[in-house]
Design goal:
This protein is α+β, with helices and mostly antiparallel strands. About 35% of the residues lie in helices and about 25% in strands. The chain is elongated.
Length: about 90
Amino acid sequence: MVLHGAERIRKVATLNGGGPQSAEYWEALDTLREEIESLSERGIVLRDPETGLIDFPARREGREVFLCWRLGEDRVAYWHGPETGFAGRRPL
């Protein structure tokens, strides 16, 4: 079974402390949810929170594309079509 996001944190927290989640856990989860909603409201798509991969909707040569950035990259320097995703990244 593959665990994602809060499920993985909850499982590790339970195994690590042996009890229910603390108030800090729930506060962190609320903060994370608020931040993801804030990104979404600005049109930013969080693709992979673990690698910090985000996409920004844009237009390139008259078609809809995504500008693509990942944590650690100096600037937004790649784009891809909606049908290709990260594997189809091309330099700007």
